[in-house]
Write a structure and sequence with these properties.
The chain is about 0% helix and about 25% strand. It is mainly β. It has a two-stranded antiparallel ribbon. Strand 1 and strand 2 form a beta hairpin. The termini are far apart.
């Protein structure tokens, strides 16, 4: 169990398998565009389950 993290349950849209966010790893590579996306791999079928999609990057005012 991961302390300090609230448990949430999600359902895979491909195979309808229900899983907890505490039972699977988040697929995040800490990319340069980190916008707080939340994507998991379904432990049953291996499909991506997108909970919070990546936000489009915006240009900074200093560019």
């Amino acid at each position: 169990m991961i302390y300090g993290k609230k448990e949430r349950f999600y359902v895979c849209s491909a195979c309808v398998f229900k899983f907890s966010n505490l039972d699977v790893d988040r697929t995040c590579s800490n990319c340069f565009a980190c916008t707080g996306c939340e994507i998991y791999i379904c432990p049953s079928c291996g499909e991506e389950v997108v909970i919070k999609p990546m936000k489009p990057m915006t240009k900074s005012k200093n560019s």
